[in-house]
Amino acid sequence: MRRGWKFVFAAMMFPAFIHAITVSGTVCGDNECVSTLSGVLVKLYNGSSISDTVLQDDTTTNTSGFYTLNWGTNGQKIFVINQPGYNNYVAAVTFNNGGPYTVNMTLAINNNTSTITGTVVAASNSAPIDSTIVILSGGVLGSPISVRSNSQGQYAFDSVGTGTGYSLMFSGNGYKNDTLTNINAPWNSVISTGITALSKSSTAIEPISNPQSLSIYSVGSSLILRLPSISTNAKVSIADLFGREVFNQNVGSGVREITLNANGFHISPGLYFIRLTQSNPVEHGSNLIAESKILVGQ
């Protein structure tokens, strides 16, 4: 009689050992599993959806990309992998018997996981420059994107696509513009451009040559360019940060506003230069009436 009780007691004390279920497999970096991934954290959850699952077991793949997980009950489980450089992996699998099971998993590469960083300082004293406009273009970008440096002069572009031939343009209030070119972004990398030193300039952001500044504002879906008071025929031109003219129009004397998008102009995020010049040539001096820079945010 005592022996029977001892057997029941042992079964109650070690149910996980008696009913342990094992799943193993390989985590691959391609469909043919030519490339296996080591050091990948594999998590196994018990449940039918991520929102109500409980972590059952986790492990890290070895140098061959192999993993083994153990748990105590059948039913639906969810595999989760969050590996830098790859899309998040979530897969639901139902286990109906005691196993052991084999589950191989293939991760898809995410080509937008690089970061470009750097620091902007003053050339005169190496002090960091706050709020410098930094514009990234080229590479695999469809259109330029911009950020501002922080109080330490630091800036960062996250989720940059794998590619070559990126360029950076720096525009700080009171400093000369500068450019870095031929920047390459390898997959899943942090690329530091180091320190960029800007020289002082008499040019301010807005206005830069005339107290009668030019400005752009929106009213509903309309994009309006406000002009200073002028008593002569003039020409308005807008150029992007690379000096390419993206808009020009002649205006008569007394005109104070132009609806830009009514004239086929569509503005994208970036830095723009606006110039208002007299239509008739000036014999002595400049025909410039006003100019300014504007930053169009995301």
What does this structure look like?
5% of the residues lie in helices and 48% in strands. With 298 residues, it is mostly beta strands. The protein folds into 3 domains: 2-106, Sandwich (Immunoglobulin-like), CATH 2.60.40.10; 114-198, Immunoglobulins (Immunoglobulin-like, Sandwich); 215-296, Sandwich (Immunoglobulin-like), CATH 2.60.40. The strands form 6 sheets. Strands 1, 4, 7 and 8 form a 4-stranded mixed sheet that branches. Strands 3-2-5-6 form a 4-stranded antiparallel sheet, with no helix packed on it. It has a 4-stranded antiparallel sheet with strand order 11-10-13-14, with no helix packed on it. The longest helix is centred in the N-terminal third of the chain and has 12 residues, at 2-13.
How would you briefly describe this protein structure?
Mean pLDDT is 81; it is low at 1-18 and 202-212. With 298 residues, the chain is mostly beta strands. The protein has two helices and 22 strands.
SSE arrangement:
Elements: H1 2-13, H2 15-18, E1 21-28, E2 41-46, E3 54-60, E4 66-71, E5 75-81, E6 89-95, E7 101-102, E8 105-106, E9 114-122, E10 133-138, E11 145-148, E12 154-160, E13 163-171, E14 178-185, E15 190-198, E16 215-219, E17 222-226, E18 234-240, E19 245-251, E20 257-259, E21 270-278, E22 288-296
Parallel strand pairs: 1-7, 1-8, 9-15
Antiparallel strand pairs: 1-4, 2-3, 2-5, 5-6, 9-12, 10-11, 10-13, 13-14, 16-17, 17-20, 18-19, 18-21, 21-22
